[in-house]
Specification:
Layout lengths: L9 E5 L3 E7 L16 E5 L1 H11 L3 E8 L3 H13 L2 E7 L6 E7 L5 E6 L8 H5 L2 H5 L3 E5 L4 H14 L2 E5 L6 H7 L5 E2 L3 H8 L4 H10 L4 E5 L5 E4 L6 E3 L12 H14 L4 H15 L15 H13 L12
Parallel strand pairs: 1-4, 1-8, 2-6, 4-5, 8-9, 9-10, 10-11
Antiparallel strand pairs: 2-3, 6-7, 11-12, 12-13
Helix pairs in contact: 1-2, 1-9, 5-6, 7-8, 9-10
Length: 327
């Protein structure tokens, strides 16, 4: 975890929680093919769970709002949240339905394929979110992801917008354009990856897609580009390319979640958007060097040193760097 002064920030996280079944394979299976592997891991999962744990590791106070079943997968997640100090009183328990389960296939190059059974998240509704409206309104920033129906995300964004809370939407997976039309105008920031930006706009070029998302109502846009870093388009500024860390990726699953954690926290702290995007790229670069998301979080201890080292080099003062130097 981080050391030194901690950010005085509370973040509300709304989205999916559950468990991840993580398979490491020499390659992706072909159609009809069965591959055997002995490297199955069962870990807490769902983007909102990842965001909550990641933000806590970076020092923020976190309130998590979601839904789970009554099963061992939910118990696994709740134990992880307790250990990390995440306030999960906003995670409702739904009876007669399993928790969300995601199967993640990771090949030798670190690329991944993900399939999600939504379970309890398919029944997560605006009323579940609205029951915690006062709690969301009391936070500094809201981070929403979409491994669930769009309606509860829309409810959370409306609550935050009405209360003057900064809003960040990670549209993963990309919602239908009809849902996006309601979501985007409520977002101070939207953070799609390359494919999500294309799905939302019909435009393959990230710069053109970012501009279109802003036209559709988003205040500012960051398109994450994997090894190519990120493209930043603030609501009141010009396009900026933010490079990625130069590292050997072992597992790219969770890279986008890591980016969103560091980016959202920096925005909540009032840092400039370009600095927030750079911190997001640093966090993503650290995560991809380890297997899984929660297992690789220990590497985040290096984030303050990486940020300080980059600042020192910019100002001409001596500064330390880590292996796989930042941008």
């Amino acid at each position: 975890m981080t050391t030194g002064p901690q950010p005085d920030v509370t973040v509300a996280v709304v989205g999916a929680v559950g468990a991840g079944l993580l398979y490491h394979l020499p390659r992706m299976p072909a159609s009809g093919e069965t591959l055997l592997t002995g490297t199955l891991q069962v870990v807490p999962g769902g983007k909102a769970s990842n965001h909550a744990i990641g933000l806590r590791r970076l020092g923020a106070r976190v309130r998590l709002f979601s839904a789970a079943g009554r099963d061992p997968f939910a118990e696994l997640s709740r134990a992880a949240w307790r250990d990390e100090g995440v306030d999960a009183r906003g995670v409702v328990e739904l009876h007669g339905v399993p928790s969300l389960i995601g199967s993640v296939l990771v090949d030798a190059a670190g690329d991944n394929r993900i399939v999600i059974g939504t379970g309890a998240m398919g029944r997560y509704a605006p009323a579940h979110v609205e029951a915690f409206a006062a709690d969301i309104a009391g936070c500094d920033l809201l981070l929403v992801s979409l491994e669930m129906p769009a309606a509860p995300g829309l409810a959370a964004l409306r609550i935050a917008r009405d209360a003057g809370v900064t809003t960040v939407l990670n549209p993963a997976p990309a919602p239908p354009q009809a849902d996006a039309a309601g979501l985007l105008p409520l977002c101070d920031w939207v953070t799609p990856n390359r494919s999500e930006a294309a799905a939302l706009t019909g435009l393959a070029d990230p710069a053109a897609a970012a501009a279109r998302l802003r036209e559709l109502g988003a205040g500012g846009v960051v398109v994450t580009l994997g090894g190519d870093g990120a493209l930043l388009l603030p609501g009141d500024g010009e396009e900026t390319a933010v490079p990625a860390m130069r590292v050997r990726a072992l597992d790219t699953s969770g890279a986008g979640d890591a980016f969103n954690c560091a980016f959202a926290l920096a925005i909540a702290q009032g840092l400039p958007p370009a600095e927030a995007a750079r911190r997001g790229c640093l966090a993503a670069g650290l995560i991809v060097q380890g297997p899984g998301f929660t297992g690789a979080l220990a590497r985040w201890e290096a984030l303050p040193e990486l940020v300080a080292g980059r600042r020192a080099r910019r100002s001409g003062r001596p500064g330390g760097t880590a292996a796989g130097a930042p941008m």
